[in-house]
Amino acid sequence: MTDFLNGIHYNAWILPALLIIPLVGALLVGAHGATRSSRADADANAGPARQIAFWTLTIEFVVSCGLWWSFKIGMPGWQAGVDYAWIPAWGARFSVGIDGISLMLVLLTTLTMPLSILGGWTAIKSKIHAYLAVLLVLTTAMLGVFVARDLFFFYVMWEMMLIPMYLIIGIWGGQRRIYASLKFFIYTTLGSLLMLVAVIYLGVHNRDAVTGIPNFSLDAIIASGSLTPKASLWLFGGFFIAFAIKVPMFPFHTWLPDAHTEAPTAGSVILAGIMLKMGTFGFLRFALPLFPGASMNPTVRAIILTLGVIGILYGALVALVQPDFKKIVAYSSVSHLGFVMLGIFALTVQSVQGALLVMINHGISTGALFLLVGMIYERRHTRMLSDYGGIARVVPLFAAALTIVSFSSIGLPGLNGFVGEFLVLLGTFRSYPAFAFFATIGIIFSAWYLLRAIQGVIFNKLDNPDNEHIPDLNWREIGLLTPLIACMIWIGVYPAPILRRMQASAEQVVRTVQSAALNGPQRVSTLKGGE
After folding, report:
1. For the stretch 294-312, what's the b/e string if a residue is b when 16 or more beta carbons lie within 10 angstroms of its beta carbon?
2. Which sign, positive or negative, has the C-alpha torsion 359, 364, 365, 366?
3. Side-chain half-sphere of 353: how many Cα atoms within 13 Å?
4. Nearest-CA neighbor of 208 among 221, 195, 222, 225?
5. CA-based radius of gyration for the chain
6. What pTM did the predictor assign?
7. Could you read off the pLDDT of 295-348 as tens digits, one per residue?
8. Distance between CA atoms of residues 9 and 55, nearest Å
């Protein structure tokens, strides 16, 4: 398979194709909507538009799967790289590539997006063409973030993804959608502006000595290593705020529960499954290698590790007292992403691999939880735990799926959640045993709040007459949950193929950051060496 893919130069076109396919789909959806005489007519006849969007994203996923087989295991550098001049006068380039860090996030994105379309198949009833087009544009923006290796291109994609999600929450969200969407937009934009200042500084600081044109190449900036310790610390702060808000880390998390609660099901799945990973990905891809001295500063690491552990415990404890099932899942994200930050800044190969795996597992498990919450909400139009109870007798397929997915999120051995958290704790314990100990307590709390939730929803007594005739999962819902549950079992039983693809890149990040912090700026000529 690898020889065949290489024979047709798969790596030469795959990443640009993945960025273009959703945009083509958005144009087709828009063209279909434009042929209708009125918005009501367009909404009433939106079946073809849904089909276009779903099959566009399904094709996107199928095309992206080739990256799994074409990826060269053991190679830490860029693969499938493409580099063209984009805006020469500004020094901006269309420069993309993947490594072991971004490979699985690209595949997670292309898997999640068609499932999100299916998850909102009947829930969205107005402005359907616009909704589908926005989802398709959002796909391109998110993939652009994961594959960017030029800081200017990365920033454009980073900002580009904010508008679609703002629209998804603000137009198709719940009753408090305007408040939630504005809060989401203001938080993320303010952080992004600080990062923009840092990006401009880096590009100008590394400008061409002859032409004076800025250089935004990630590799070139890392290799130059010419920042002073003071400048490095300030610039790291700019990136840190932007990424910490996106994670979201405690105490920058307050936009998340509102956004999750008010977003439609697809918006919640995308937020949890993909967009939150962009903050943690940003730390691994940009903040650590660009500013190794600041990243390895003992005070900085202690602060971030402390905030990570606080996030683990705080998110779990707040989830424990929530009466709204969707808010429980939302606060669980704060807790799970705390594990990711702990693994990244413990900075051992095991902890970084564990952090990457937690990112993937959280996207699968929490995305599935939001889908399940959306499914039961469509049937009962309530998310309050007190309105349910005993529905396992009425909807056994839903109950079985909710139980499996909840056990996955808890970290039950044999399912995907266990492997990543175990590696994070194992890697962290080597350097910071106290932080590992307190993080372990967070796992106990996560079992507490999720077991409480599923007990209240599907077990106990069936004493509410409104719950006696709830329809069980239909074939569409079974079809979209099946690949997610299959991934939970596969990763829980046999994570080795994923870990092998991550290992070289994780080792390279750890080695590069530690070497740079110890030996100064002469160290990084091989960070991303080789195509």
Report:
1. bbbbeebbeebbebbbbbb
2. positive
3. 22
4. 221
5. 22
6. 0.90
7. 888 899 899 999 999 999 999 999 888 888 888 988 888 888 999 999 999 888
8. 24
